[in-house]
Amino acid sequence: MKRSEIVRTAMGVCLSSVAHVGGGLVAANSLWDGRDSPAEWTFYYAGAGCCLLPLTGTIAWLLTTTESTRRTGQGVIIGAVVATIVAGLALLTGYAPPWISAGWTGDGWS
Prior knowledge:
Blueprint (H helix, E strand, L loop, with lengths): L2 H29 L6 H27 L5 H24 L4 H4 L9
Helix pairs in contact: 1-2, 1-3, 2-3
């Protein structure tokens, strides 16, 4: 594998990761009203990522059909898979970022 191919693959990983993380953050922050539990924010975040998967998969498929963009498409696939795994782990562990979970006592807001 040449260096330029590695760069193209890394570019695809970065692009899809930014799209999934950015889209998830925008959706979760828009839907979460601040009175819900932090787990609901995590649900919104992961749900937005799942909604982006068909679009990301289509873009990756289109990119992999052309020789000049094949490595970028493969990177998009890798980035989408990693973002999906991270969102799934966040759901399973109940993770919520500190700016969301600050003040949550487990039974309600302090």
